[in-house]
Amino acid sequence: MHMELTVSTGLGIGLFHPMKRIAIIGGTGFIGEYLGKHFSDNGQEVTLFGRNLFANHTAHEVSRSVSGYDVLINLAGANIAKRWTSKYKRDIYESRIETTSKLVEAINLLATKEKPKLIISASAVGYYSNGSIEVNEEGESGDDFLAQVCKDWEEALTKIEGNIRVVRTRFGVVLASHQGAFPQMILPFRFGLATVLGSGKQRLSWVHISDLVYAFDTIIQDERLRGAVNVVAPDAPTNKAVALLLAKRFSTIFKILLPTWILQIGIGPGHVVLTDDKSAFPKKLIDSDFTFAYPTFSSALDNLLDR
């Protein structure tokens, strides 16, 4: 697996004292694999669980699997970058809410000494309303499908019993050179086509995989971080600005405008992932003195394309 973790100047990077036992649920996805390798390389005891832990086992059985860990990281959820049929929308929803609900039930079955001290559960900037401008963690939720998924996903965590710190990490698009959305994002530009999607005015909330990994370090170490935490870069460029940066880097000649109605026909309801306007701001991370290694899309692009 290709890795591109780089040194960040975030809080206490790579230093865990004493050693922690960390379980990553949904750990077979690319984000989980990056996190697992990072923690393992830094001397932590790491276990990766796939979603089948929840699909094939009762809450009592899950509780035995997650007993005794210091940190539980929940990343489980079906990939949203597929065509959204009615059935697949159910998969998107159930893979998040049902998995998280069973995890919460399993944790509540544990004796106090067996419970984790920290749960970090994934969510997304899809939580916020469309058109939000640099919204921090106190921003209002939206009313579309993705917002409802995120709200119910986070709501499931409120049923955790005991003195456990809970962090809900709201991700933007996670950029890595060979995995996730980035290879698809740059593909038309590699073939000389500068592609602007929808109006081109919609902003992109994103984060470089290295900054995401080191943000998790900060969350684990800084007990002030609780509740929702936006794991996004402080720079949210428009789709048109992204296209211009990529066009310059790839020296593209032809420009293609793909209006929303064409994307709607080609992709279906999932086109909103490309056309919604989400501009989240990482206020809590910045307030905790976290410093982004890649604060701008341009700096992330330089790093990812040079690999």
Summarize the helices and strands and which ones pair or pack.
Elements: E1 21-25, H1 30-41, E2 45-49, H2 52-55, H3 59-66, E3 71-74, H4 86-109, E4 118-124, E5 132-135, H5 145-156, E6 165-171, E7 173-175, H6 182-190, E8 193-197, E9 206-208, H7 209-221, E10 227-231, H8 239-250, E11 254-258, H9 260-267, H10 272-275, E12 278-280, H11 283-287, H12 297-305
Parallel strand pairs: 1-2, 1-3, 3-4, 4-6, 5-12, 6-10, 7-9, 8-11
Quick structural gist:
This protein has twelve helices and twelve strands. By secondary structure, it is an alpha/beta fold.
Q: Explain this structure to me?
A:
It is globular, with a radius of gyration of 19 Å. It has 307 residues and is α/β, with parallel strands linked by helices. Strands 2-1-3-4-6-10 form a six-stranded parallel beta sheet, sandwiched between helices. It has a single domain, classed as NAD(P)-binding Rossmann-like Domain (Rossmann fold, 3-Layer(aba) Sandwich), CATH 3.40.50. 39% of the residues lie in helices and 18% in strands. The longest helix has 24 residues. The protein is built from twelve helices and twelve strands.
Q: CATH topology, which one?
A: Rossmann fold
Q: Shape, please?
A: globular
Average of pLDDT: 89
Helix content: 25-40%
